[in-house]
Amino acid sequence: MFNSLIAASRLFLRSKVAVSIRGENYNIIYRFYRKMNRAVVRCVPSESKLTISFALDGSNKQMLRDQTEELGKALARIANSLIKGQGKAKKSKKNKGSPTEAPDPAVSVRLYYNGDVVPEDAINSEAWQDGAVLHVGNREYTVERNPPTFTTTELPASLLAGFPVCPRLEVEFGDLKDCRFKWFKERAPVAGDERGRGEEGWVEVGNERVFIPSNMDIGCKLKLTCTPGDGKRCGVEEELVTVATVEAGPGTCTFDNRHMYTNKVTDDFTVRVVSYNILADVYAQTELSKTVLYPYCAPYALELDYRQSLIKKELSGYNADVICLQEVDKSVFSDSLSPALDAFGFDGVFRIKERQHEGLATYYRRSKLKLLSQHDIMLSEALTSDRLHEELLDRVNSNPTLKDKVVQRSTTLQVSVLQFQNEPSKKICVANTHLYWHPKGGNVRLVQISVALKHLQHVITQSHPDASLLFSGDFNSTPSSGVFQLMCQGALPQSHPDWSSNGPDELCPMDASNPFRLSSACGEPAYTNYVGGFHGCLDYIFMEPRVFQVDQVIPLPNHQEVTTCQALPSVSHPSDHIALVCDLRWKLSPAMSSALP
């Protein structure tokens, strides 16, 4: 018996799989022995089949059976599988010249629950209960139905000292807050020590979901062991080892000094808002970007994994309540940002641009806010199909050239209505957008912002009249633009030069109005976008000043920090834009503000 357990433990070391139960420490042999004597059943009511998994004769058996099938058929399938396995083994021995043996009698396979045999005419979905015992010959397996299980486990490729390492984890039948984590780093091998960097060559360095390596970890790989849980029980421990080693970070980043102003989470009366165009990877990796737009940026600093390491540290250090991001790659949202920000307490929603690979993301601190509803639109589609914009569409139709340009754009408006957890009467309508980029596209942007404002007015008046508006994004508009004037002054005359920004062929003069009274919470910075051929203020966080007062605007990086490597992005800044960050304090209740004239 002891020898078989030793053999099992050696197999465990090769498989790198273990079970750890509610903080108790079990030795390797017992953990593996327990794993070998468990039958995991995955049975989801919405699915037609269930899965039965267990280890038998050193191999993993997994069967997919109909939930409505009788138990007897499933048990017979297990018995037949064992007989076939024995037949293959005997045939292999015969081919090798070993003497043949008489066939083993049929193996008895039974399922017990509370000591009683489960009838073979019971259907699978009811027969395989948690705590049942499967008997296969003289072997016994404890049935675990729908135990917590990781369905995705992945570590990032880029590891930088001083920057958070956030694993991508997805768990079924459990919750990440109930999972257990242990981080290890490689122990440098001692001269003459034949063990090298094996199981005993790791040093435990952390037990949180996110790990921040230090300079002492440079040159070392990291290992994470994580055990899924649901608050009552734990599943099978998973082990992940990084492919790369920890590398030195870039030193001081442009956002490090900014974090000194945001080292604490805000109180219940304040909302910290971030708006940030993070530069989509789909644009950063083009030849145009590398050779024309950002030739001053080191190629490795344009790589997605490297920039994501910086972005995660930057965003987590702001301790924000609401984060509005633009140019978010679809895969970045699901595979990188959301797993990381989830670990820091954020939930998020994503809206991709039609016919594109990037879009908008809005994150909110789940302990403070909850999502009530979403009202996203594609601006061109809303203009042409929603009767709300009939008057504007009539004017745009008068200039086919302008209309074609507007309709071709996939510009999107993301609208999320959030409610405060501690005071349900407080709601904010968070709008997030990224308007048309072309320098001569001021007329297109004016049409886009007119559609956006009309839509927001409809959402608030019809669905959430007690919500206050926060409108963030990359508006691709300087403070002298028609868009900025319309947002902050409430009206724009038809004489504004932006109506003819691309020449007389696209002239479509009209008076425009803004139903909201808004102001720029962060004022008019000298620039929020700084590249080799351009710098200017393009990003804003617009708020209702009758509802909010600005508590603080987090200072932008100074000019020397921005231009250390000539322009942005750089090894110390992950985007060509700079994040806007501000704290907004409630002046009065939303109900009182809505009653004002």
Low-confidence stretches: 1-34
Please summarize the sheet with the most strands: 7 strands, mixed
What is the end-to-end distance? 85 Å
Global Rg: 30 Å
Mean pLDDT: 89
Strand % is 25-35%
Structural class category: alpha+beta
- Spatial sequence of strands, sheet with the most strands: 4-3-2-8-7-5-6
Number of helices: 16
Strand segment tally: 31
* Helical proportion, percent range: 25-40%
Morphology call: globular
Organism: Esox lucius
Protein name: 2',5'-phosphodiesterase 12
Keywords: Exonuclease, Hydrolase, Magnesium, Metal-binding, Mitochondrion, mRNA processing, Nuclease, Phosphoprotein, Transit peptide
Cofactor: Mg(2+)
List keywords for this structure.
disordered N terminus; poly(A)-specific ribonuclease activity; 31 strands; alpha+beta; hydrolase; metal-binding; single chain; 597 residues; 2',5'-phosphodiesterase 12; globular; seven-stranded mixed beta sheet
Task: Describe this entry's structure for a reader.
By secondary structure, the protein is an alpha+beta fold. About 25% of the residues lie in helices and about 30% in strands. It has 16 helices and 31 strands. The strands form seven sheets. The chain has a seven-stranded mixed beta sheet. Helix 1 crosses helix 2 (about 30-35) and helix 8 runs parallel beside helix 9. The longest helix is centred in the first third of the chain and has 25 residues, at about 70-95. Its cofactor is Mg(2+). Belongs to the CCR4/nocturin family. One of its GO terms (cellular component) is mitochondrial matrix. GO terms for molecular function: metal ion binding; poly(A)-specific ribonuclease activity.
